[in-house]
Amino acid sequence: MRILPLTAIAAVLVATATFALADRGKWFQRVDTDGDGAISRQEALAKSSERFARFDANEDGTITQEEWLAVHRARFDQGDTNGDGQVTEEELRAAMKARHEQKQD
Ligand SMILES: [Ca+2]
Ligand SMILES: [Ca+2]
Fold first, then answer.
1. Which of 23, 28, 80, 101 has the fewest Cβ atoms nearer than 10 Å?
2. What's the pTM?
């Protein structure tokens, strides 16, 4: 089992908060697909369905614990760039930055 050191967890929280603020405006624009300045129920459901599909790997309409964990394991592995089973603060910052930049595309 992989265990994140406390510094990595703290870094996740700081990095998440930092990027979260910057991403809110972009996130809103992506979800508000008709650009009317409001997120309708239909737009919210579409975003939710998109997120659900990301986890439902076998497309059977349910998310198993394995599917859920697989997505999070993949994110962990992306952050663990040297493959030592641990994510350092530097690796985490780099992963958060890459993810942020990917969302901008
Ligand atoms: Ca809208
Ligand atoms: Ca499934």
1. 101
2. 0.60
User: What are 60-95's pLDDT values in tens digits?
Assistant: 999 999 999 999 999 999 999 999 999 999 999 999
Residue 60 CB burial class (10 angstroms; 0-12, 13-18, ≥19): exposed
Q: How far is the CA of 30 from the centre of ligand 1 (A)?
A: 9
Domain residue ranges of the chain, discontinuous segments joined by +? 6-104
- Going from the Cα of 73 to the center of ligand 2, the distance in angstroms, rounded, reads 16
- The amino acid that residue 79 corresponds to is G
CA-wise closest residue to 66 among 57, 53, 79, 54: 57
Phi, psi dihedrals of residue 25, rounded to the nearest 5°: -65, -45
